Amino acid sequence: MFVGVDVGGTKVLAVELNGRGEDLAVARAAQLPMPGRTAAAGEVEEAVAQAVLEVAAERPLTCVGVSAAGLVDRAGEQVRFAAHLPWRDAPVRLRLEERIGAPVLLDNDANCAARAELVAGALRGVDSAVLITVGTGIGGAVVLDGRVVRGANGMAGEFGHVQVVPDGLECECGLRGCWEQYCSGRALERVTRVTLGSHLDGPEVAALARDGHPAAREVFATIGTWLGVGIAGLVSAYDPEVVVVGGGVSAVGDLLLEPARRGLLDALQATAHRDVPRIVPTRFGPEAGAVGAALHAGA
Ligand SMILES: [Zn+2]
């Protein structure tokens, strides 16, 4: 049995897949809260193992794919750095293999999400694409000629820490003005405090926005516009056919994506003289990383 597990800033999600191609679906899933950035690495690894064992339900595991929200080295052995997790140059693949008792394959979460969308989702048959995950922070992946671009260190596509505002807001990574300070789950909470004057969490603001609450919609318009501004830079760099947006914050759909489409048009050069890429949601949504990790394990 192949299991995929996504390790994000706020939760661990493990899935088992069923079917293939367009019929691919999540058969079982288990979700645990992430112990947090201040937790010991061992606590995070224990949460991963627990989620995997819950999905496995005492059946033997063939291989486990792990999708991590951080910089994974090209060999897939270490998480070198993760702004929202305690891993620093940590041999995560081996540690998890020992804890879980089955072979483990490790990759970056956005790369995993891109793999899921290429195999069975929004990127089937697409040659050039950019994938953005808007979760606790921002993750990204680049697809050129139908393949995920890895970069010299396996770290290509870390768009969340591209500076969009000089001397802007302080980021968990230690820099200032990073894109994810303006467009992410963390940014959503900050903009909510400013706009609504309340400490609602992401899903609560999303529920209000879906019900038509004007200020809650304004929060997603602000975040979405920043999403479009960042995407404009990526379109200039990579000329993608499609931009796929996933991650927990994107669960509100067009409430986020429509402002992003407008933000892209406003911030992109020569829009009258080019095909502006479509901005579309992921097929697998918040499960894309875990699904791609399971596909990695099963490949
Ligand atoms: Zn940063």
Automatic annotation (TrEMBL):
SUPFAM superfamilies: Actin-like ATPase domain. Gene3D superfamilies: 3.30.420.40. It holds the Pfam family ROK. Belongs to the ROK (NagC/XylR) family. It comes from the Bacteria. This is ROK family protein. It comes from Nocardioides antri.
